[in-house]
Design brief:
Length: about 450
């Protein structure tokens, strides 16, 4: 197969015919039906594991279900149940109901790569690894993993990490990029050294304003001169004691996909600022201008724009803190509640960038009434918070449970979020479908309406 610059899923979305050609070999341009002839048909047969009797009716550009289910490219070892959005670079999100744990296990933590996984990470051998700290510092440093672990005081923190593009699938007109729904978020326990302590050991000069981070991941093109991603932080965020140079995830060496041996964790900010496979911290006297710091990458217009607007690059600002948000992890969307026992528990997590969540509400009548949920404090700053509520559905029918978090500045999740060109920062409320099956007349009884008209319950 030819070297692919883009993943199969993305390619099938944007150019299905070209994707077919790449996967199955040359195909006649004009005749899309019955395209599977000769070598192409044989190749597809080999891939799906058998001849295809109805190949004449198989639409061009269709990813065969067998390929989607079986092939390595669509499954990630150790990440069962995650939905792969792209295989090159690798991007996978977690279905909401698999995010139920307070601490996200590594095998359920979403993956977002901009380039390829570096060889050192795949091999899991940090022997040759070094971290350089240079630029606007008094004493440039070179640290081994051992130096990091022994010359500084490590901390353990549960930290929420959310991709800036989580929720992109909800934008209209659609924004290009991974079509994340709700699952590009996680909350693992990270062990590491506060970035602040590393910077202080090097001595940050007065004129420093930003850090620039470099990882070991190769660019998709294979060009060693190019970085897939090099992000940074303003000095004040780099100096926050919860911003870590981490070397363990949930008590284990960081898995290859999550940045082995060492990564930044800048909790509460767009996930892109949490540089994986870290090898250099360049302290700068200007805002870092590495790969995907400029243009429209991880940036949004400085002012509200109408959907579909064409906004000039110079009007974009860098995304920093993520907005208040929550996810319903139970019940799973589509859940059926028995008609004779309609009391359900609804639960999930909530988080709010650099802030804490102050209140959590749920509605099961499309937002007409809201019930306050029990909300736990974070186990430490920047950990997501658990919430739960018990509600009794009034009778048979179709319901949606909506969840809405409010942060400690009073900001709430909206029903729908304002559009932006690259589809970032979608913190619209999560909704799940619930059905109470049954025969007979709907029982969303007059009594309910009466209760409300007599002053309401909530
Ligand atoms: N070196 C490097 N670091 C990176 C990335 C990358 O592509 N290369 N992706 C970033 C993005 S966009 C996100 S959302 C997070 C995802 O972290 P995870 O894959 O551990 O969930 O890593 C960030 N760090
Ligand atoms: Mo991201």
């Amino acid at each position: 197969m030819a070297r692919r610059e883009r993943g199969i899923c993305e390619l099938y979305q944007s150019d299905p015919e070209r994707a077919d050609r790449l996967v199955f070999g040359r195909l006649p341009e004009a005749d899309r039906r019955g395209f599977l002839k000769g070598a192409g048909l044989a190749a597809m047969g080999a891939i799906v594991g058998g001849a295809i009797p109805f190949h004449r009716d198989m639409p061009a550009g269709l990813i065969p279900a067998a390929l989607a289910e079986e092939k390595e490219a669509f499954r990630i070892e150790g990440k069962e149940g995650l939905v792969v959005l792209n295989d090159r670079p690798l991007n996978a999100e977690t279905p909401a109901h698999l995010l139920d744990d307070a601490i996200t296990p590594a095998d359920r933590h979403f993956v977002r790569n901009n380039g390829l996984v570096p060889e050192m990470a795949t091999k899991g051998d940090a022997a040759g690894w070094k971290l350089t700290v240079d630029g606007e510092v008094d004493r440039p440093l070179t640290l081994t993993l051992d130096d990091l672990k022994t010359k500084f005081r490590p901390v353990n923190l549960a930290l929420q990490l959310e991709c800036g593009g989580n929720g992109r699938a909800g934008f209209n007109p659609p924004a290009s990029g991974n079509q994340w729904t709700v699952g590009a978020v996680g909350n693992a326990v990270w062990t590491g050294v506060p970035l602040r302590d590393v910077l202080n050991a090097a001595g940050v000069k007065e004129n420093a304003v930003y850090t620039g981070h470099y990882g070991m991941d190769p660019h998709l093109s294979g060009d060693p001169q190019k970085d897939p991603l090099s992000r940074g932080l303003p000095i004040w965020k780099a100096m926050d004691p919860h911003t870590l140079v981490a070397f363990e995830m949930n008590g284990q060496p960081i898995p290859a996909l999550h940045g082995f041996p060492v990564r930044i964790v800048a909790p509460g900010w767009a996930g892109s600022t949490s540089q994986k496979w870290l090898e250099r911290i360049w302290v700068r006297d200007q805002v870092h201008d590495g790969a995907k710091m400029t243009g429209k990458s991880y940036r949004v217009p400085a002012y509200p724009v109408e959907p579909g607007a064409n906004v000039p690059d110079e009007d974009f600002v860098i995304i920093q803190s993520m907005p208040v948000k929550s996810v319903i992890t139970w019940p799973k969307s589509g859940f059926e509640v028995p008609a004779d026992n309609r009391m359900i528990e609804v639960r999930g997590h909530a988080w709010a960038g650099d802030r804490a969540v102050r209140q959590m509400h749920i509605s099961y009548d499309f937002g007409a009434n809201w019930v306050e949920a029990e909300l736990a404090p974070p186990v430490n700053p920047y950990a997501w918070q658990q919430w739960r509520a018990r509600v009794e559905l009034p009778g048979r029918g179709y319901y949606e449970v909506w969840a809405r978090a409010t942060d400690d500045a009073g900001a709430m999740q909206p029903f729908a979020v304002a559009w932006n060109p690259r589809g970032y920062l979608n913190n619209a409320m999560h909704r799940v479908a619930i059905r109470v099956p049954g025969l007979g007349q709907p029982q969303v009884a007059e009594t309910e309406k009466e209760a409300k008209s007599q002053g309401g319950k909530e």
